[in-house]
């Protein structure tokens, strides 16, 4: 319960901060905002799960809300990665299509898609029969993240209109998205799709424990998406390396013989 309580105020503070970053000429935070809203839903459901209400219906309702928020968060991670890819690989298309209205339409589609996929499955089949469809749903973004990162790195040299600092920030965000999805979601994807793994209680607990940390990881995604964050990190690393080299350098003996 303590981990959920610690993540809750962090996500609330970050969500409030990122709302203040939105400008009419910068639509990228809109996807981050919706990503953090989906994380907010997951955190609320995790707190209810820890409290363990006596009414089983309430528990099931919050379980469905949690799964809905998790599916929506995956969709918005794809939106964040896709937008960063378009900035480098298709800059003209991105700048002409970059409007608040278009971003709102995409957000509505991402919020609606889990409902269209998830609700019919809830009422038509048992939760156990949904393991394979869930595994396929969460597996689909994985090759997309790899494609977005590879395509962005390949197109970096041709994107002469994008500043160097912006290129670093875009690549850092894409690497972080792929890293988050690989470390936190891939174990659960394997659990959904491999029947032998489902029989291992230890892997069951570990895989879903990793997914619970995705809202906290998305906070770092927001930090890296801000201008100057990557440059500050690289500058700090360079200073640490220079300080380390200076401390390891032998001091010349200036005393007379």
UniProtKB/TrEMBL annotation:
<dbReference type="InterPro" id="IPR017452">
    <property type="entry name" value="GPCR_Rhodpsn_7TM"/>
</dbReference>
<dbReference type="GO" id="GO:0005886">
    <property type="term" value="C:plasma membrane"/>
</dbReference>
<keyword id="KW-0807">Transducer</keyword>
<feature type="transmembrane region" description="Helical">
    <location>
        <begin position="205"/>
        <end position="224"/>
    </location>
</feature>
<feature type="transmembrane region" description="Helical">
    <location>
        <begin position="30"/>
        <end position="51"/>
    </location>
</feature>
<feature type="transmembrane region" description="Helical">
    <location>
        <begin position="170"/>
        <end position="193"/>
    </location>
</feature>
<keyword id="KW-0297">G-protein coupled receptor</keyword>
<keyword id="KW-0812">Transmembrane</keyword>
<feature type="transmembrane region" description="Helical">
    <location>
        <begin position="130"/>
        <end position="149"/>
    </location>
</feature>
<keyword id="KW-1133">Transmembrane helix</keyword>
<dbReference type="GO" id="GO:0035025">
    <property type="term" value="P:positive regulation of Rho protein signal transduction"/>
</dbReference>
<dbReference type="GO" id="GO:0004930">
    <property type="term" value="F:G protein-coupled receptor activity"/>
</dbReference>
<keyword id="KW-0675">Receptor</keyword>
<keyword id="KW-0472">Membrane</keyword>
<feature type="domain" description="G-protein coupled receptors family 1 profile">
    <location>
        <begin position="10"/>
        <end position="222"/>
    </location>
</feature>
<dbReference type="GO" id="GO:0007200">
    <property type="term" value="P:phospholipase C-activating G protein-coupled receptor signaling pathway"/>
</dbReference>
<comment type="similarity">
    <text>Belongs to the G-protein coupled receptor 1 family.</text>
</comment>
<feature type="transmembrane region" description="Helical">
    <location>
        <begin position="57"/>
        <end position="82"/>
    </location>
</feature>
<feature type="transmembrane region" description="Helical">
    <location>
        <begin position="102"/>
        <end position="124"/>
    </location>
</feature>
<dbReference type="InterPro" id="IPR000276">
    <property type="entry name" value="GPCR_Rhodpsn"/>
</dbReference>
<dbReference type="Pfam" id="PF00001">
    <property type="entry name" value="7tm_1"/>
</dbReference>
<protein>
    <recommendedName>
        <fullName>G-protein coupled receptors family 1 profile domain-containing protein</fullName>
    </recommendedName>
</protein>
<keyword id="KW-0325">Glycoprotein</keyword>
């Amino acid at each position: 319960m303590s981990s959920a309580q610690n993540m809750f105020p962090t996500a609330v503070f970050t969500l409030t901060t990122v709302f203040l970053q939105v400008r009419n000429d910068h639509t990228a935070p809109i996807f981050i905002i919706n990503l953090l809203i989906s994380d907010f839903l997951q955190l609320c459901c995790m707190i209810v799960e820890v409290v363990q209400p006596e009414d089983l219906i309430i528990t099931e309702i919050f379980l469905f809300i949690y799964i809905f928020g998790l599916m929506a968060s995956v969709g918005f991670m794809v939106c964040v990665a896709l937008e960063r890819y378009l900035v480098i690989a298709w800059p003209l298309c991105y700048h002409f299509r970059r409007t608040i209205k278009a971003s709102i339409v995409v957000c509505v589609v991402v919020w609606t898609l889990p409902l269209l996929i998830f609700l019919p499955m809830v009422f038509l089949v048992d939760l156990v029969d949904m393991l394979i469809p869930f595994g396929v749903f969460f597996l689909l973004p994985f090759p997309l993240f790899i494609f977005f990162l590879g395509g962005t790195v390949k197109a970096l040299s041709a994107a002469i209109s994008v500043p160097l600092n912006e290129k670093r920030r875009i690549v850092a965000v894409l690497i972080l998205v792929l890293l988050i999805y690989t470390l936190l979601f891939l174990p659960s994807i394997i659990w959904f799709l491999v029947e032998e793994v489902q029989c291992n209680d230890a892997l069951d607990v570990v895989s879903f424990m990793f997914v619970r940390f995705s809202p906290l990881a998305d906070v770092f995604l927001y930090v890296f998406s801000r201008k100057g964050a990557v440059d500050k990190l690289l500058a700090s690393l360079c200073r640490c390396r220079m300080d380390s080299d200076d401390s390891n350098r032998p001091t010349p003996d200036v005393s007379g013989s």
